[in-house]
Amino acid sequence: MLVVRMEFVSKATLKSTLDKSQGRTSIKVAVFSATSITPHIRRLTFVGNALEIFAKGGPAQWVKVFVPADGGSRSIGRAYTVRRWEPETHTLTIDFTLHENPGPVSAWAASAAAGDEAEIAGPRLSHLLRPVAEWRLFAGDETALSAIASILEALPPTDQPLVFIEVPTPADRQSLTAPHGTRIQWLIRSEQSASPGELLVDAVCSKLFPSGDGQVFLAGEARSVRLMKDYAACLISSDSIDAKGYWSIGRSDYRD
């Protein structure tokens, strides 16, 4: 049996341990479990008593995950959306997207196992969910699945959002918890030989938005998100659009 050992320190010590590059608290954690839930998503659950100071700020919040690099002489970090935070057990779950040409953190996640250590800085709030909206539309690729899933779980039970999710293959679809009236359309790139974001742009930009006070969330590959945002801005107020480029084709460590 593998025993995950963590160093126990006081809250005061934790709060004074800052990641200087971010000006934020850096929390030491260890991998508790690692599971490939789809061909392109690796789910890691982290534990550590340091997580007792982790504060849940709402759906689609994000953290920065730092992993060892250059043989452990330094660390490198990337931003990831929190999939689930369970304060009762101090466990934090993050889904890592596995790209064809992985960056340093996703490469680490692909082979991470129980007991492997990392550091987490954050969290930060990403999406401001309106308590009431006459309609909602969410669109994203596989990198946005955690954000969309956490937003759906936070919606009022009477909501009936329309959701477009683009993934590489049929096996990358996930079972999502959402209000009963939710309409989810999975867009499969491999079935149409499509490039990343292509099917999302086609789906969103061919949609006539309903009248009334709506809310739109768009996330995924940066160029595709910009195209969808420009289209949506022609139909509704920009204040009702939350658009985030999570990555960009041909660029590493993209920042929107």
From TrEMBL:
Task: Cite the InterPro entries for this sequence.
Answer: FAD-bd_FR_type (IPR017927), FNR_nucleotide-bd (IPR039261), Riboflavin_synthase-like_b-brl (IPR017938), SIP_FAD-bd (IPR013113), SIP_fam (IPR039374), SIP_rossman_dom (IPR007037)
Q: One MF term from GO for this chain?
A: oxidoreductase activity
Superkingdom classification of source: Bacteria
Q: Which Pfam families match?
A: FAD_binding_9, SIP
Domain FAD-binding FR-type: residue ranges: 24-130
Q: What family does this belong to?
A: Belongs to the SIP oxidoreductase family.
This protein's name = Siderophore-interacting protein
Organism listed in the record: Telmatospirillum siberiense
